[in-house]
Amino acid sequence: MAGKLYLCATPIGNLEDMTFRAIRILQEVDLIAAEDTRNSIKLLNHFEIHTPMTSYHEYNKYDKGRELVQKLLAGTNIALITDAGTPGISDPGEELVKMAYEAGIEVTSLPGACACVTALTLSGLSTRRFVFEAFLPPDKKEHKLALERLKNETRTMIVYEAPHHLLKTLWELLETLGNRRLTLCRELTKKHETAWQTTIEDAITRYEQEDPKGECVLVIEGRSQKEIEDEAKAAFEEISIEEHMKRYEDQGIARKEAMKLVAKDRGVTKRDIYQYLLGKES
Questions:
Q1: I need a labelling partner for 182 at 20 to 30 A (CA). Which of 14, 62, 102, 172 fits?
Q2: Strand 78-81 to strand 106-110: parallel, antiparallel, or no bridges (unpaired)?
Q3: For residue 110, what are the β-bridge partners?
C-alpha cells in the first residue's frame, strides 16, 4: 500500500499553539519533510519528536518532490511541515500536494496556526469576505498587475511583507488604492504581538521615521461598493443620454432594453430616461 502525506501546521510563534494531533502524527510517520531542518529541529526537540527529517524547500521542490512521491508510493508515511504555519500557504508545499494527487497518493491536512487568518480575525476589519495575496510577486510586471487587480477589490485584503520592503510596499499601496484603513500585524502569537489599526498614510509617516522590524501581515480595507457605483455613475454623467443610448443600441440591444440599462447606469428610473428622450424628440 502507498503511504500517506500529512500536512502538519506548526506554530507561527507561540509553541503552545502546536496541536496534540500534530505532535502525534509527527511522532508516528516514517519521515518529516521540513522547509528548513535547522529551524525545525528546535521544534522537534521541544516536543521530543525523534522522527528522521529531510529538507523540502523552494529550491529543491521539483526534484525532491519527485523523490518524496516515490517514497510515498513505496509505502512511506510522510509529514510535511513549513518553518511556521500551515504547509501549502505561501510556501512550496502546494507543489508536493499536486504531485501526490497526480500519483494517486492520499493527502490530509491537520489544521493549526496560519498567520493570514490570525491577522484577519485580529484586524477589526470585515472578515466575511477576504482575499489573500501573500507576498506580492517579485517580477516587476506581475507585481504591477497584482496591485492593479486590488484597485477595485471590495473584499478585505491580506498581504505579507518583509520589514526591508515594507515602506516601498506601503507607498505602492497608497498610489494604487488610495488612503485605506489598515491593520498592521507583527510578531503574531509572540510576547510582543501588535495589531496596529491605522491608515496607509499614517503607516508611511511612522516607517519613514523608524525602521520596521519583524515579518508583517497587512490587513487592508476593501473598496466600498458604493464608492465604485458612484464613480461609475459620475463617468456616465460625462456623456449625454443620447450617446449613452447609442452605445447600447450599437450593440444590437433593443431601444426599450437600452433605456433600462442606461437608467441603471445613471441611478435613475427607466421613466426618467423615457421622458427625457420623449422631450428631445418632440
A1: 14
A2: unpaired
A3: 8
Q: Give the pTM.
A: 0.81
pLDDT tens digit sequence for 191-235: 999 999 999 999 999 999 999 988 899 999 999 877 777 776 777
